[in-house]
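Technical annex B. To support the medicinal chemistry partners, we prepared a structural model of the target in complex with nicotinamide-adenine-dinucleotide, based solely on the information shown next.
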Amino acid sequence: HFIGGRYVEDKSGSRFDVIYPASGAVIAQIHAGTDQIIEQALGAAQAAQQDWAARSGTERGRVLRRAADLIRARNRELSVLETHDTGKPLSETLYADATSGADALEYFGGSAGNVTGEHIQLGENWVSTRREALGICLGIGAWNYPTQIACWKAAPALACGNAMIFKPSETTPLCALKIAEILSEAGLPDGVFNVVQGQGDVGAALLQDPRINKVSLTGSVATGRKVYQSAAVGLKQVTLELGGKSPLIIFEDADLENAVGGAILANFYSSGQICSNGTRVFVHKAIKEAFLDRLSARLEQAVIGDPLDETTNFGPLVRDRQMQIVQGFIAQGISEGARLVCGGRRLERPGYYLAPTVFADVSDQMTIAREEIFGPVLSVLDFDDEGDVVARANNTEYGLSAGVFTRDISRAHRVIGKLQAGSCFINSYNDAPVEAPFGGMKLSGIGRENSKNAIEHYSQLKSVYVRMGDVDAPF
Ligand code: NAD
């Protein structure tokens, strides 16, 4: 754990292993937070928060921007750690994780001075509003982007003057500790950002404490429901970034190479372990076979291997359990009649490697078209009518992302306008710049991360009425 500006350990907490997914080797052991550790973290956050909130936004922002610079300077070291934590290839982690965390710290560092209220004149009287911190925010992370998730939650929370206790995923617990160290080195006062390790029960225990004012979870819908329920007891604010089963629609006039590239980014980056992935790829019947041919040919070029070798661009799944889950979905796809175009098998090498997998002739009712797989499995579904494909694309409980490939700009906007998803893409997929709001509709979540929107999710408004004249009381 990292509490009050330093590493702490309570060896009486249950011990769990951190596994390097490319080999299966145990690379670290962590003790879960005990009641005493949880109390220590809450005490440290409480002791630090008000002084932090009392600083000017510019002063808070300067610390965050300094942390962003330190992260960039140490990008390689942090990326190597993230690769050990997650198994994602260095060719990805060097560009998409710590750097994205640094972007968030830089953006919200720059925004901190703009966290202001407004003046509302009412004749000679007026109201002024103050945008104030919520207090102590709890961040709970998923395992796929441990550095990015820690920063995406910490940066707006801290910019607004909150303290944060972050509980990383038990599967990838190492990276958030480095972010805590770096924030400290950048000048963050002790106790403003703390990391408490453990499984779901530790997150649940923290959330139940009345000193926690807000929770932001990145995780599955099942966990989101539990967190929402628990937060409801104390009417705590929530941000939920949950799962998805997003559609990617490829029309017959699309640039084929770009569409294939989009489908690859939407399914195989991070070995498919991305919430916003476009796993239901609707391809117009007229180009379906050409699309499948090019997709299969390009997938053969994937360099699968040692994630620490920078030429590798496809790594293992995060753990054995995930491998079993994904293999189960593949078996179901085959038994329900989908056509296996390529992949579908575990690779014979140490670690949890699964070949990039493509199914064609997938129908809307099949399990692989309905449930989030969280692995490198792309399903191709046919269509020939625009209205019909939009209805089918929306026929899911999820609503995280959606994409369209077409050269027809009117059609692109018409279709995107009808798709029920929080993050949409036209002739692109899976971009997540910090300037844009990120989050889901329907079961994919509540609230938005990133962008100026996130400020509203980590602050509250106070209205101050000022009367210039006498008080006119009835008696
Ligand atoms: P998960 O739901 O199993 O766990 C997420 C986190 O919640 C972990 O830290 C876990 O320890 C904690 N947790 C579990 N039970 C809890 C409880 N009762 N109270 C408090 N905390 C609890 O998810 P995962 O397997 O780590 O991640 C995969 C899921 O996350 C997928 O569904 C994926 O789509 C989703 N995800 C969403 C986004 C997004 O931004 N929308 C990003 C990445 C991953």
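Notes passed to the chemistry partners:
The pocket of nicotinamide-adenine-dinucleotide is lined by residues 140-144, 167, 169-170, 199-200, 203-204, 207, 217-220, 223, 226-227, 241-244, 275, 372, 374, 400, 440, 445 (CB under 6 Å).
The chain has a mean pLDDT of 98.
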